[in-house]
Amino acid sequence: MSSFNHVSFIESASCSDSGSDEEITTKSREVGSSSLSERRSNRSEGAEKQPFPMKQILAMEMSWYTSPEEDSGSPSTCASDVYRLGVLLFELFCPVSSREEKSRTMSSLRHRVLPPQILLSCPKEASFCLWLLHPEPSYRPTMSELLQSEFINEPRENLEEREAAMELKDGIEEQELLLEFLFLIQQRKQEAADKLRDTISLLSSDIDQVVKRQLVLQQKGSDIRSYLASRKRIRQGFETTAAEEENDDNTIDDTLESTLLESSRLMRNIKKLESVYFATRYRQIKAAAAAEKPMARYYSALSSSGRSSERSSVSSPAQPTKDPINESRQGGWIDPFLEGLCKYLSFSKLQVKADLKQGDLLNSSNLVCAIGFDRDGEFFATAGVNKKIKIFECESIIKDGRDIHYPVVELASRSKLSGICWNSYIKSQIASSNFEGVVQVWDVARSQLVTEMKEHEKRVWSIDISSADPTLLASGSDDGSLKLWSINQGVCIGTIKTKANICCVQFPSDSGRSLAFGSADHKVYYYDLRNPKLPLCTMVGHNKTVSYVRFLDSSTLVSSSTDNTLKLWDLSMSNSGVNETPLHSFMGHTNVKNFVGLSASDGYIATGSETNEVFVYHKAFPMPVLSYKFKTIDPVSDLEVDDASQFISSVCWRGQSSTLVAANSTGNIKILEMV
User: Fold this and answer.
1) Rounded to whole angstroms, how far apart are CA atoms 659 and 674?
2) Most buried in the list 128, 212, 256, 675, measured by CB within 10 Å?
3) Are 107 and 50 in contact, with CB atoms under 8 Å apart?
4) d(CA 461, CA 441)
């Protein structure tokens, strides 16, 4: 209500009282009126400079708020102000989407015609509005009547009730939210409690089984000790010497010390060991449950065979059926898990048995790329970027404390060497691969090159000679091909072509009809060579190049990758053609860019690390069993220094023994033993 006793409707764009449309255009753009924004959206770019018709719009809007009596020339009164209040009330309850619609609606309002949606949705407001907009001023309410009207006063009277109702509704909704939260927590805790109850039940069952087995073994041990003691008494006439008693005491002390050491290692890795235990148990229970389903169908069909089954049951006694789940709980898991646990705790450290010192140790290009033992574990060969294959006698190096060790045989190649492999049948035969893509076969006894095979177009990373068929050799190359060679004929007899570089190949020890290889596409492929068109299985899980593959046995494979992991695969679980679930992922070493070596023997897996360390894992557990760090000695000062650029480049077990040979990127070679 203005000081002139008038109610005025003024849009934000009308802040200027200038008489110029052009000036109003500029200023209205600065304040950003809604009307201007609407016009901008409907105008073309060329018409954007046209002035905004502010005067016309304001004149039109003022006409909406002009009462009928003012239109006819009568002076403005309080009734006219009431009329204007009616127009304002109508605009508050009736929003429109466009100016054209607004113009039509307001024109209809002059004749007291309201939109149907307002009459339906807001009948009380529409009735009150029509009272204020009566064409006859005397029929409009006075200010006193307006202030005392039910329309104005009813909301105020019910405001507290509405607020209380809203607060109550909000409170109920909050309580429902809290209740939902508590139910969710209860459900999760109940699920955890059920799982914990099942876990404790499983543990209790396993403890009972182990205790029973322990009692049986103790009884057998007692019987054996009684028997030996009686033999001893008979032989020595019931005499026990002091030396024997001392030996018994020393044995007890050694056993106690070993038990304490194993216990400390057990506690350090209790979480990981627990995880492996439960994974092993649930995997076996799941497999047993899967095996139970076809048996259940069989017995169901048997029981529904009618009279014949009745006669059969009469004529022959009922055979007890086995419960595979119960059988899996009855100790079938104990032997493999116990074997892994004992092997994990069998050794406490890697000890240096010999440090191989070569005459050309100061040679800058002395990186050892491959190490391999011969058939009997008597000799081992090294090969690398110095283009030489060096053959050393293992025992002589261990026993002789010489300052410098010389190879018994040295074979020279034209190119840097990437891999070597001994023939398991012909003791003196060794094969090599080089950076020029050539595969060579050597006779170590005569120090001669036997044959060369040159069909690869790029560097050959890996070779392997089949133990089951010692005339068959496989090679994998950067040219994306795996080639099979006949050693006797010196020719390629088969090729498997892939889209990525092949970094490693290996035959299983018991077959020459299948092989596995790792690729730069992050996958491991297992082929039946009788059908080389498609892999028998593809193992997917690594995130980077697969640098090594090694068979632990005919159905278990370990792979190494520059993603810092080794992965253990069960080939018997790969019937679908793709295996995405390794048995374990071994982590602890560092390997992100270099070939660090991989070797497997008797369940133990050795690998190198870019921290210049050798790591040993056991197939049963994903954490390292042992590790040994190569010391870096300055050749000038003979002092230990820290050189982050050095890494382990190759490792190899000595047959099925606890001895392994490891070399690093400077050519430093050590013979290590687990003790």
Assistant:
1) 7
2) 128
3) no
4) 15
Q: Which residue matches tokens 């018709």?
A: 53
The answer, yes or no, to whether residue 290 has pLDDT greater than 80, is: no
CB 617 within 8 A of CB 586: yes
Q: Flag whether pLDDT at 600 surpasses 60.
A: yes
Sheet holding 626-629, edge to edge: 598-601, 604-608, 613-618, 626-629
Among 619, 620, 616, which Cα is nearest to 607's? 616
Regarding predicted confidence, which is higher, 335 or 650?
A: 650
State the pLDDT at residue 13: 43
Q: Tell me the angle at which helices 334-345 and 270-303 cross, rounded to the nearest 10 degrees.
A: 170
At residue 552, the pLDDT reads: 94
Is 419 a residue whose pLDDT tops 80?
yes
pLDDT in tens, 183-201: 999 999 999 999 999 889 9
Which residues lie across from 443 on neighbouring strands?
429, 448
**DSSP output for 139-194:** GSPPHHHHHHSHHHHHHHHHHHHHHHHHHHHHHHHHHHHHHHHHHHHHHHHHHHHH
Q: Interhelix angle for 54-64 vs 99-109, to 10°?
A: 30
What is the residue-wise DSSP string for 86-119? HHHHHHHH---SSHHHHHHHHHHHTTT---HHHH
Looking at residue 159, its pLDDT comes to: 65
Query: Given this model, what pLDDT does residue 591 score?
Result: 96
Q: Tokens 């950067």, residue?
A: 478
pTM: 0.65
What is the rounded distance in angstroms from the CA atom of residue 201 to the CA atom of residue 195? Answer: 10
608 within 8 A of 661, measured Cβ to Cβ:
no
Euclidean distance between CA atoms 223 and 233, whole angstroms: 15
Residue 208: what are its φ and ψ, rounded to 5°?
Answer: -60, -45
Cα-based torsion angle of the residue sequence 192, 194, 198, 204 in order, rounded to the nearest 10 degrees: 90
Average pLDDT score over the chain: 81
Residues in the chain: 675
Average pLDDT over residues 381-407: 89
Run of H or E residues at 599: strand 598-601
- What is the pLDDT at residue 363? 57
Neighbouring residues of 633: CB distance < 8 A, sequence distance ≥ 6? 639, 640, 641
For residue 475, the surrounding DSSP H or E stretch is: strand 472-477
- pLDDT for 92 equals 86
Residue owning tokens 């050393």: 392
Quick one: which H or E segment has residue 486?
strand 481-486
Question: Residue 42, Cα to own-chain centre: how many angstroms?
Answer: 54
3-state secondary structure of 550: strand
Predicted confidence at residue 14, as pLDDT, reads 39
